[in-house]
Fold:
Amino acid sequence: MSIASGAVTFVSQLTVAKFGGTSVADFDAMQRCADIIIANPQTRLVVVSASSGVTNQLVALTQAETTSDESKALIKQIASIQYQILDKLGNPSDVAAKIDHTLSHISTLVERLKLTRSKAVMDELLSQGEMCSSIFFAAVLRGKGASASAFDVRQVLRTDNHHGRAEPQIEQIAELAQTHLKPLLTEQVIVTQGFVGADSEGNTTTLGRGGSDYSAALLAEALQADALEIWTDVAGIYTTDPRLAPNARPIAEISFNEAAEMATFGAKVLHPATILPAVRQKIQVFVGSSWAPEQGGTWIRHKVESEPVYRAVAVRRDQTLLNLHSLQMLHAQGFLAETFATLARHKISVDLITTSEVNVSLTLDKTGSDSSGQGLLSEALLQELSQHCRVRVEDGLALVAVIGNNIASTAGVCRRVFGVLETYNVRMICQGASPHNLCILVDESEAANVIRALHENLFEA
Structure:
């Protein structure tokens, strides 16, 4: 689908649409989203998140410190959200029975979790918000005269058994989607769940917070869709977060590479992994607002008409800087290999790296972790690293990225960027590994001011 100046032109044969939590927050929001689906006959698969707030409540239910009284209150809050939607839907008996069953299942899972603390049970519990949303959204579509039904995504979205952050099995997903899902799309609109999968034993898994976008992209890839639409609460991707820079403006079109950089370095509109399946299959991606679809949005494509040096500024907060110092590095071989092998054993992913003759500095992202910083950098990991180097950990940092094209080979970039940062303490600089970004690490308390200064100089001057 192409949206411009309020006009809608349909260009795709198969479109997969994904709606986030705010887009399916309540009955009225679902009504708006249903209108978007009905307006485009090519949209045959819809992927939904849990209603806004539900996943946070489910996460609270998984915490060991949550008391029985608190659990009851949380379940009551979840039920209230669902029953409000059910009431406005008119309490159809088939939908009511499914929602009652799901809410009862939530209570059962909470009791099981108290006994087992099983990560598999946690994933099963966390998936229930999406289950409710898919049941409701299919019913809303039917209420508008569309042929629609809910589909359990666990039949096709195969993952490994790494609960909490499961790894999709791409080939199996493609095979299962073609067998079990694609035939259904010719007869009706299918509504399914984001964020949720299943391992080879049929146990529920989850892809991690924000994984609904990824789920939609994986299904679009498996079905060889022509377009993927990500419907959220903002009208596309902006040059930066408008809450940080009031003059930020929407971007009509960006490349896969630029979008991947933006997602990786903190743009909240997209999950960092979302773009990967689209890149593999060259599926165009549209990002728009379900609250105001007439405002248009951003198209992400393999080829774009314009490739400016500066496209956007992104920020990713809650970063950790790991400094490693060892004289053994001097003219030695194998130090970096040993360091990265240690990090890999502890499942730590490194974002940026800079080196000197006797020092290595690494940035680690805590925002995607289920743990606190201390959980991310466990005592066992720090002890293992300390056996061959001196370790220093710095928290409270933010990673600011200038996103664009040919940044490393364009004269004057450093002057434009660092000319406005002379009053700020820059802890780390990384440029050259990618032609699409220049990254700086600053104190988190200064991040907003750094973003505003960069945006004003690069986009408003």
Notes: The chain has 15 helices and 18 strands. Confidence is low (pLDDT under 50) at residues 1-12, 368-374.
